[in-house]
Amino acid sequence: MSPLMPADTLPASAGALLVTPRAGARDVRPGLAGVDPNALAAWMLERGEAAYRARQVADFLWGRGAVSFEEMRTLPAALRDGLVAAFRADTLVETTVLPADAGLTEKALHRLDDGRLVESVLMRYPARDGLRERNTVCISSQAGCAVGCPFCATGELGFLRDLETAEIVDQVRFWRRRLTPLGARVTNVVFMGMGEPLLNVEPVLAAAAALSDPRRFGLGARHITLSTSGVVPGMERLTALRPQYTLAVSLHAARPALRDVLVPLNRRYPVDAVVAAATAYADATGRRISYEVVLIDGINDTDRDAAEMARLLRGRLAHVNLIPMNPVAHTPWRPSPPERLAAFADALRASGLATTIRRNRGLEIGAACGQLAADQAAAPTPAAVGRRRERLERESAAALAGGGA
Ligand code: SAH
Ligand code: SF4
User: Fold this and answer.
1) Separation of first and last alpha carbons in the chain
2) Which ligand is in closest contact with the Cα of 266?
3) Of the candidate ranges 37-46, 276-285, 393-402, the one whose mean pLDDT is the lowest
4) Residue list, ligand 2 pocket, CB within 6 Å
5) Does the beta carbon of 290 sit less than 6 angstroms from any atom of ligand 1?
6) Residue 99 and residue 80 share a domain
7) Which residues are catalytic?
8) Which of 94, 163, 184, 346 would staple 179 via disulfide (CB 3.0–4.6 Å)?
9) Helix (H, G, I), strand (E, B) or coil at 183
10) Residue nearest to atom 4 of ligand 2 (CA)
């Protein structure tokens, strides 16, 4: 059978809200980094191979970061041929890297087998003040995103497709290969690139499991952060597993009417249900929830917003991360000025909430994590941008004028 099948015969994602341009054909061979070790062992057994062959392949893949079966020189040629026919050693067809921040931030643009583009970012934090060096990789879980938050460049693309497990893991393997010759390693992974991880929940959980498995990528579960705009069923699925991953919730506003505008998913999963689901995760795992708040000048950064957020989160196992919005082309909005961020932080801290302000990395390459979008959508016409701005201004004005709800 040919390994290729047309993209439009793939099952549609539950999160698909937007119809998108057709991409090329998909390669149906699963990426090896997404194959469960037991499944690989079973595959070997079926072919009459010795059990240790699966471990040998795993050593090449995880230990040496192999991206082709040709590199697995100690395997018999017939086995290598069998592996090539059944799996892909790497799912990233081509990667372009752009540096920023004096080399401390790098953005990778990965082309997948069907031509779709996704992005990942490496953020390096050199050792200082007795703290060890950290190298955080921000990865994508979907091409595009169906949620459509109006301040997010990925949201502007609409939903393109879910990534398979190996496509997620291979982004991290890419950065590991790049860091190894520098004597450095990936210390943290955050699912804050393109896409809504919990609308692609099974592949994302399988990827996180591979990354945290000591026999595979070997990162501590606590060093993996899943970020969600508030997909309650996905959060419940996660809670049932009781992993030690950090859960980040993109909150942005406490008041439902305003959150409806900033995170359209709020209409399906309202903020109270989202916070309840996050609290259940904290209770089940003992892990503090990280609430992310992108602050937009004059929209969600007022004293009233801070007071409402303090009321919502007070007394919970929570940490609040305030992020100045990165400007994006299609909105009329601007980042909150530093003094507003500081005042917002002070108001939350006064309620006993641990609060930090995050500096955006890689602004100049448009790669501050979470605001990723390759130039894969046709550029909108000025008229379309104008219409979009008008609608946003109208909706946010209505939400801002709205009363308590
Ligand atoms: N879909 C998930 C994860 C990817 S987005 C989520 O929304 O949580 C990761 C983070 O980047 C989110 O907190 C999101 O709100 C933030 N983000 C998106 N666009 C941004 C922008 N223009 N400026 C700053 N942060 C942004
Ligand atoms: Fe999707 Fe997250 Fe962007 Fe919202 S912020 S559109 S959920 S990627």
Assistant:
1) 57
2) 2
3) 393-402
4) 145, 147-149, 152, 154-155, 195-196, 229, 250
5) no
6) no
7) 119, 369
8) 184
9) coil
10) 149
Q: Is residue 335 part of a domain?
A: yes
Q: Which domain holds residue 81?
A: 32-86
Could you count the other beta carbons within 10 Å of the beta carbon of residue 97? 14
Distance of CA 368 to the CA centre of its chain: 12
Comparison of pLDDT for 112 and 363, the residue scoring more: 112
Q: In whole numbers, what is the pLDDT of the chain averaged over residues?
A: 89
Residue 181 lies in a domain: yes
CA distance 361 to 327: 13
- DSSP H helical ranges for 132-216: 153-157, 165-179, 201-212
Residues 390 and 355 in one domain: yes
Reduced to 3 states (helix: H, G, I; strand: E, B; else coil), residue 113 is: coil
> What distance in Å separates the CA atoms of residue 191 and residue 20, rounded to the nearest whole number?
23
Question: Closest ligand 1 atom to the C-alpha of 292?
Answer: 13
Q: Which of 86, 116, 131 lies at the terminal end of a domain, its last residue?
A: 86
Residue after which a domain boundary falls, among 86, 101, 119:
86
| Ligand 1 center–CA 98 separation, angstroms | 20
